[in-house]
Amino acid sequence: MDLTKIEYLGLDRVLKRGSGDILEQRADALLIRDRVSDALMLACEDASLGINLLDRHVTPDCDLLMVPETLGAATFERYGFTDKLDCWQVAYFGEKPAPDARLTLRPATASDLPRLTEHYHLLEPDVIQILIERESIFLGYEGERWVGFVGEHLEGSMGILYVLPEYRRRGFGAALETAMIARTMERGFVPFGQVVKDNQPSLRLQQKLGLAQSEHLIVWMWK
Length: 223
Known about the structure:
Helix content is 29%, strand content 31%. The chain has seven helices and twelve strands.
């Protein structure tokens, strides 16, 4: 299985950082469990084979699953998940980008949790707390002024990007993501992220920053 495909960079990341346990491995399929996010992640082009592998490992307490789009509908219903997102995966393969001189970053701390949860509602507060403890969320400042934040999800994808309303349309979203790309490259990883399939503004930002887009969607689902 070619984990250099953009769709499967998430599996590649958790294996390289040492948190991925291989549950099934074949020439044409790979199923792993990430100990950090507790997600099952499947790389497989054949839907019937993918279901066969998942049937052996998806238990009632499995709360997070990532599969290729060919298995999205079948697995969502089969294993009783309640929410899902169909996403494009994007990845940066260029040279390390230069930082925006206007922006400085600092890791979020426990004292920042209230304002992060006030502005960002796509993750539960307990997940944001874990990300803070892992030093995976960064606050961006223009001088002394807080302009937004960016981070890395538990499985390693870039995201959690937010710019305060009064600082939008000034390039700070691009600056925050660029800083995250550089930080990821400094750690020896390929920067990648996910964009909900119909989020055209975010896709345009990724193209502007030079990220390549996957040919096919991936599906994240949870309970």
